[in-house]
Amino acid sequence: MKAAESIDQFYLLKQLPKATALLCKEGVLLDASCSWLGIFGLPPQDKNQKTKIFKLYAEASDLKQKLRDNKPFTLQHKTETNNETRYLKSYFAPWFDKEENVIGTIVQTDDITSEIQKEKQIDWLNNILKTKVEVSKTGWWEYEVETDKLSWCKETKRIHQVPESYQPTALEAIDFFKSGYSQNKVSMLFHKVRENHQPYDTKLMLVTYNGEERWVRITGKPFVKDGKVRKIFGTIKDIHDEEMAKTRVKEHQQLLSTLVDSLPLNVYVKDLESRKILVNKGECNYFNKSVEELIGKTDFELYSEEMAKVSREEDIQVMKHLTPIIGKETVSKLNGKTTYFLTSKIPHFDLEGKVCGLIGMSLDITAMKKKQEQLRSLIDITSTQNQKLISFAHIVSHNLRSHSANFSMLLGFLNSEKDPKERQRIIDMLSNASDSLLETLGNLNQVVDVNTNTSVTKKNLNLHQSIVKVLQNLSAFLDENNSKIINNVGKNLEVNCVPAYLDSIILNLVSNAVKYKSPGRAPLIILNAVKSKNSILLSISDNGLGMDLNKYGDKIFGMYKTFHNRKDAKGFGLYLVRNQIEAMGGSITVQSEVDKGTTFNVYFNEES
Amino acid sequence: MKKVSCIFIVDDDPITVFGIKKMLKSAASCDDIQIFQNGQEAFEAVKKRKEQGKVIPEVIFLDINMPIMDGWEFLEELIALDINEHIVVNMITSSIDPMDYNKWNGFKDKCPYILNFKNKPIFKIESEDLGCINVAS
């Protein structure tokens, strides 16, 4: 009866939904529910099997002792079957009979594998979060609307530079932002996320606990339940260094671009194909094109083929041999306008030190070049003037000295001369000398006049008319010598001249032509005039004696140089003519052949 | 008074010629004084004398600035004639142009004759102008 009862009992035990087992006082398994046996992978039990419990709880070495204590306790353990680990939790309680004597132990076992795994996952996630926070330096915060409680993570506290024990309130948190824009903005955003469920993500300036001003990026996101915001979760990231670096980069860029743009240079960067990849304002202004119009263009699209070729050759030279061109004088023609540049081209390297193009700089030196040319012509003028002055000084000294020397000599004779007839001769000579001196002075004066009165006004004069007028004045002289004059000068041709000089030039050249006639021929004088771009050429040809120019050359225009034995040859006319024509910016040349004739070419400068 | 066989005065200025002639009267005795207006005339005369074997001028007073052929050109031609006789050439000029002086210096070296440089005004013909070596100086 007792046994049947107990069997029933055990049968009941078998069916318990919760894994349960009964142990005798020695720790031998009496019976267990099917679920319990399933957990440990044991077959159904009968009396012949004496399964000792301790084998099943290998991790708990003190289990025997614990069972003897007759007190309830729990034990966590695991089983491993077919590579599967199961986490278990067993509850041990003493088993009493009706008289409250301990007759064994009741064991209940729960499979807690899923809980353990969840815990592990949470741990893992926490770990990830922690690493993420550490690496990204992004802190988080959480605000509970109902309790008005704000919590900061460790990183958030670090960003605020507060001790880890610090517990912020929402108001304090807002106060950490720099008063003014940052603080106003953050309170507005916080209000909006609370009231309108509007998330935010912005950059603001924080003032840390230690008073440091730092840029932070903050976000906020509402957690809504039943249409009400329960929680606000957000992040905070210290982006000060990046912001400052960005600002510095921007500042550097700004500085560089301002510098490049404001340089009084045309600056451009070209790639390996000589396409422009950067141009400054100067370069844009030069081409009268926008930056967009110039980028990607090569010189072949901007200049003439010929010039572009030269430029490309230079580019290749610079990029291939890495030899920079520094301050090379170049000439650019664009839309018919010529510009002189001082050009420099230097190789452009990428960060790896490989050449990736070139940097070009051109300084417009057109104005300087013009000034230089002006200066050069001024120097030329000055040195010619100087030369003239020196030769004039010599002429003056020579001619005046020769007369004064004669005076001294004659007066010396006069002092010691007793013979009245001889004295009279000397006195006659003195008066001759005085006359020649006066004439010389008159001549010199004329020359000085021509050279100093450069402001004498020029007028447009009809060349033909002027010649006719001079010929009329000379008519007696011309007739006397049976001269024939052919005036081929166009009736409408005008020259810009000082009237008196023009008359003098024509008079001297025509009368010279007659004076130095060949004894065997009646003088024939032909006047021609040709107009060219900047000047009018008047040529006066004769059939007279002519001269050996190899012998006399330019001397014929010198003062007091005479070449023929003629009493009235003073050597002054041509000197005066040359001075007059040069004073008006023109010039005079001569061609001659002995006993054939002479041609004087007078070039009137018609440039205004 | 030195006896000179032949003197040439080459100058286009009649006053200078007059002066030289006058001064020569008291410095030399010469029966053959010839006057020329320019270098060309004087050169032709010397050439003719050489060809005809006549007396070559012992002393020449030579102006620098003259028409047709100036003093320098005359000198050039004279040297080219290669006369193997003693000649004293006195260059007379009113020029104080240093260029003329330098030119004279250059000529002095290549001229086989005695070449003097005299600046006007001249008041007296010195004995060395006539080819006498002044032992005292």
In which order are the strands of the major sheet of chain A placed? Answer: 2-1-5-4-3
Low-pLDDT segments, ≥5 res of chain B:
none
Strand order of the largest sheet of chain B: 4-2-5-6-7
State the end-to-end distance of chain B. Answer: 19 Å
Overall pLDDT of chain B: 86
Strand runs of chain B, count: 7
Structure class of chain A: alpha+beta
Task: Please describe the biggest sheet of chain A, giving its number of strands, its sense, and whether it closes into a barrel.
Answer: 5 strands, antiparallel
Q: Based on helices, strands and strand pairing, what is the structural class of chain B?
A: alpha/beta
What does this structure look like?
The complex is a heterodimer of chains A (608) and B (137). Chain A is an alpha+beta fold and 608 residues long. Helices cover 43% and strands 28% of the residues of chain A. Chain A contains 18 helices and 22 strands. In chain A, the strands form 5 sheets. Chain A has a 5-stranded antiparallel sheet, with helices on both faces. In chain A, strand 21 and strand 22 form a beta hairpin. In chain A, helix 12 runs antiparallel to helix 13 and helix 16 runs antiparallel to helix 18. The radius of gyration of chain A is 61 Å and the shape is rod-shaped. By secondary structure, chain B is of the alpha/beta class. Chain B is 38% helix and 23% strand. Chain B contains 4 helices and 7 strands; from the N terminus they run E-E-H-E-E-H-E-H-E-H-E. Chain B has a 5-stranded parallel sheet with strand order 4-2-5-6-7, with helices on both faces. In chain B, strands 1-3 form a two-stranded parallel sheet. The longest helix of chain B is centred in the N-terminal third of the chain and has 14 residues. The mean pLDDT of chain B is 86. Chains A and B meet through helix 12 and helix 13 of A and helix 1 of B.
